[in-house]
Design goal:
Elements lengths: L1 H7 L3 H27 L11 H19 L11 H28 L9 H30 L6 E6 L3 H12 L5 E8 L8 E2 L2 E5 L5 H6 L4 E4 L6 H12 L4 E4 L17 E2 L16 H7 L3 E5 L4 H10 L6 E6 L2 H13 L5 E5 L5 H10 L4 E4 L6 H6 L1 H21 L4 E5 L10 H16 L6 E5 L3 E3 L5 H10 L4 E3 L5 E2 L1 E3 H14 L5 E4 L5 E2 H11 L10 E3 L19 E3 L5 E4 L6 H12 L6 H11 L11 H12 L1
Parallel strand pairs: 1-2, 1-5, 2-4, 5-6, 8-9, 8-11, 9-10, 11-12, 12-13, 13-18, 14-17, 15-20
Antiparallel strand pairs: 3-4, 6-7, 16-19, 18-22, 21-22
Helix pairs in contact: 2-3, 2-5, 3-4, 4-5, 10-17, 12-14, 14-15, 14-19, 15-19, 15-20, 19-20
């Protein structure tokens, strides 16, 4: 009960008045002690008007504390600012009592309110010491009550610089936190062996598994400002073998009102350990291109579509239309926009496969730019459901493209995938068909059709990171399809920045790709995630190899190879080289595929392979079609 009272408080306003009452009572006690000290502990206070002065001191003290608001601070989070407020309060009390005494003695009003100057001075000094000290004493008592049943969480801080000391101070000032800093660790020889706030600095080389177990260390907080991504990866990698959780200090620009909050010290994200520097695009032309434009985003409830929407939300668009068929997720996007105060946006629940519905929207809004993110993206599911893959990725996309051309949209920017490169699955092949159709339409009117390709997106719906996190939370095992499988990764924000950049860079007909850094071994990624969770592989969480899924590649194509791309003004962004096709012939086939109905899966995939001859199925039942096509060619 006592612990709950200190943590939550029955009523915040009541707690404040209690603090005020305690402060005033302490002022009266120090007033009594000041008289004792001044008059050599003689107890004849009546002669000096002590009892008639007590009400005056009570009133003035109350007014002083009300003026500065020193009673409003939370005692369990007392800091230097609170101590300063107390100092201001007792100083005002000192000044008012002095002025009253001067006036009373000069004009001889009653002589009852004239406190001896020596008493006022002693009282002032006692107030500074007692009231400020009481704050920190109460804070310590509350800390002991709150943490009475909490075992301390032994923690090391990696970095004994300014950031490390600030982290130490932040943790120490948080009463509700049971973290106990047992040491700093640093590789700077000048700091090793020294003590900061009585806490020793250890050499990073001495922090071994034996040290961690001996001192029962549970966490290590990496506290270095402006650390390079590669250096951060080195540091965290070196700590992952230790049986501890690794946390990281956020950059200064993310601190709340310029102050570090303990809640901002969070576990290292797997994104921090990918061997690549995030691409940051700052193009002033974006503002010019997107301002005062009517913009449609399809698939706006998805990971990519919603991030595009939020990035576009930072510009002065004329009207933003957010479209998706997933009503619940679209509602979340709508609420996010409302919370951020965005205006002039519309929410449209619609299916891109319904051309009549889509045409009604093109008639309703004078759309100038389309960002098309609506698609089915899950490889194994689409391998089993090729009809649905075609209906959305080909037929639905064709609907939106045809309407964009019909209504003379300025630019149509499509989100594609690296799986469209030499596809081995239905999903990738249908996205490649959409790319081909975009290129063909680009020659038929004023609309500029532009495509962006990128790989796996961290944190997106269906990506490997959330899946691994869920498997770890359930106790494992983590399921990996192949021990040697690798993938390229980037963040959602990067992917969407690329889409926006392509929208203003493109002249029509291009397929944009970008430098995705080094590929990541999924098996190693799984091990790092286990360690980041404070667990051990394979003792706590094992990794199970389940085999490649239908349509899955072992290695993704390296889109950024110089042989396959043309450079742009941004060295991280390139244009993919694709072979030219006979648009008249291929367009007829795409239209026929989009309108097909009552066909079985094998017939659908066979038609897809006719349009995309480089589509060679892998680990799939449709491999037999490739053998049939190959035998026909040989004949």
């Amino acid at each position: 009960m006592l612990k709950s009272f200190f943590l939550k408080g029955a009523n915040a306003s009541v707690a404040r008045w209690v603090v005020l009452l305690i402060d005033v009572s302490l002022v009266l006690q120090t007033f009594f002690i000041a008289y004792l000290i001044n008059f050599n502990f003689k107890l004849n206070f009546q002669h000096f008007g002590f009892f008639s002065q007590v009400p005056l001191v009570t009133l003035v003290a109350t007014l002083s504390f009300l003026i500065v608001g020193s009673y409003k601070g939370t005692v369990r989070q007392t800091g230097m600012k609170d101590a300063l407020n107390v100092f201001y309060g007792v100083s005002i009390l000192f000044i008012i009592l002095t002025l009253i005494t001067i006036a009373d003695r000069r004009y001889h009003i009653t002589d009852r309110f004239a406190v001896p100057y020596s008493v006022i001075t002693i009282h002032y000094l006692l107030n500074i010491i007692v009231l400020i000290a009481s704050r920190f004493i109460f804070k310590r008592i509350i800390f002991r009550v709150i943490n009475e049943y909490k075992p301390p969480k032994n923690t090391l801080i990696y970095g004994a610089g300014d950031a490390g000391l600030l982290t130490y101070a932040t943790i120490n000032n948080d009463v509700g936190n049971n973290t106990q800093i047992i040491g700093f660790m640093d590789d700077d020889k000048r700091k090793i062996g020294k003590k900061y706030n009585r806490v020793k600095v250890y050499d990073t080389k001495t922090i071994t598994k034996a040290f961690i177990e001996k001192n029962e260390v549970q966490e290590i907080i990496v506290s270095i400002q402006n650390v390079k991504p590669f250096r951060l990866m080195q540091i965290v990698d070196s700590l992952l073998e230790l049986p501890v959780k690794v946390k990281i200090l956020p950059s200064v620009d993310k601190w709340i009102n310029g102050d570090l909050n303990i809640g901002q010290i969070e576990e290292v994200k797997i994104e921090d350990l990918l061997n690549r520097t995030p691409i940051k695009i700052k193009n002033p032309i974006l503002q010019k291109e997107l301002n005062k434009k009517v913009i449609l985003i399809t698939g706006a409830a998805g990971s990519i579509g919603s991030e595009i929407a939020h990035q576009v939300g930072n510009y002065q668009y004329q009207q933003l239309i957010l479209l998706d068929q997933a009503e619940s997720d679209l509602y979340e996007v709508q609420q996010s926009f409302l919370r951020k105060g965005h205006q002039n946006f519309s929410i449209e629940v619609a299916d891109i496969r319904n051309k009549l519905r889509m045409e009604a929207l093109f008639k309703k809004y004078d759309i100038e730019i389309v960002f098309h993110a609506a698609a089915y993206k899950h490889v194994p599911l689409m391998e089993e459901n090729p009809y649905e893959a075609v209906r959305v990725n080909v037929h639905g996309t064709k609907n939106v493209m045809d309407l964009a051309l019909q209504y003379k949209v300025e630019k149509f920017v499509m989100v594609s995938t690296d799986k469209a490169v030499n596809p081995t699955n239905v999903m990738g092949a249908t996205k490649r068909i959409a790319e081909i159709y975009a290129n063909c339409l680009n020659l038929k009117g004023p609309t500029k059709f532009i495509t962006t390709r990128f790989g796996n997106v961290l944190g997106s719906n269906g990506s490997v990171i959330p899946l691994f996190k869920k498997q770890i939370s359930e106790g494992g095992p983590i399921q990996v399809t192949h021990k040697e499988i690798t993938r390229y990764f980037m963040t959602i924000a990067e992917a969407c920045s690329l889409v926006l950049e392509a929208g203003i860079m493109g002249k029509g007909g291009e397929i944009y790709v970008f430098d995705m850094g080094e590929s990541v071994k999924i098996f190693d990624l799984a091990k790092k995630m286990i360690h980041l969770s404070g667990l051990r592989y394979p003792e706590d969480i094992n990794i199970k190899i389940i085999g490649l899924r239908p349509g899955e590649k072992l290695y993704e194509e390296l889109l950024s190879s110089k042989e396959n791309t043309i450079p742009t003004y941004n060295d991280k962004i390139m244009i993919a080289k694709v072979h030219q096709l006979d648009c008249n012939e291929v367009q007829e086939k795409i239209i026929a595929l989009a309108e097909l109905d009552n066909m079985d899966n094998v017939q659908i995939v066979s038609n897809i392979k006719e349009i995309v001859p480089e589509f060679i199925s892998n680990n799939s039942i449709y491999e037999k079609l490739d053998k049939s096509i190959l035998s026909k060619r040989n004949v």
